[in-house]
Amino acid sequence: MEQDILNLDEAVVFLKTSKPTFYRWLGQGLVKGFKMGREWRFYKSDLISYLESSDQETEVLRKELRRLNDFFGQRLQKKNIGVE
Question: Measured between alpha carbons, how far is 58 from 77 in angstroms, rounded to an integer?
C-alpha cells in the first residue's frame, strides 16, 4: 500500500497553518515526521490523525468550558449577582 508523503511546504498548506506554528508542533512532538537527507517529510495519514485528535481535544475543552460556565452561572444566580 502506497502512502502519500508530503514535504514541509505541502504539510503546512495541508494543515492550513504557518511554518512557525508547524515547526512548534513538530518540536513539541504533536506532528510526526521524518528526515530524508536534510529535508522533512510527512505521511499524509499522520497529518490526518493529528487533525482528528486535535478536533477531539477541542471538543473536550469546549464541553469542560460549558460545564464550568454553567457551574459559575448557577453560583452567581444563587447570590443574585447578574452578569452582563
Answer: 28
Give the strand pairing for 34-36 and 5-7. unpaired
Find the angle CA(44)-CA(23)-CA(25) to the nearest 5 degrees: 70
Q: Global pTM?
A: 0.65
Could you report the per-residue pLDDT of 19-33, keeping only the tens digit for each? 999 999 999 888 999
Q: For the chain, percent helix, then strand, then coil, each to nearest 5?
A: 60, 15, 25
Domain boundaries, the chain: 5-78
Q: At what angle do helices 44-78 and 8-15 cross, to 10 degrees?
A: 30
